[in-house]
Amino acid sequence: MGTTFGDTDNDTRLVMVRQFHRADGVTTASAELVPGRADDNEPAPALLNVGSVGLISYDEADEYLISELQVRKGSDYATLVTFESGAQGWYTEVLESPFAQEDRDREWDPHGAVCVETTLWWFDLSRGIVSCDMDGDHDLLFHPLPDGRALPMATPLMLTQRCITVSQGRLRYVEVIVPEVGGDDDDSGDDNEAARVRMWTMTFGPAGWMWEANYSVGFPEIWDDASYRVTGLPRNVPIVAAVCPLDPNLVYFTLNRHIFCVNVARHRVRHIALWDDQVNNARLDAAQASARYVLPWYLPLEVAPGAAAFNFAG
Question: Residue 110's closest CA among 66, 53, 163?
Answer without folding.
Answer: 53
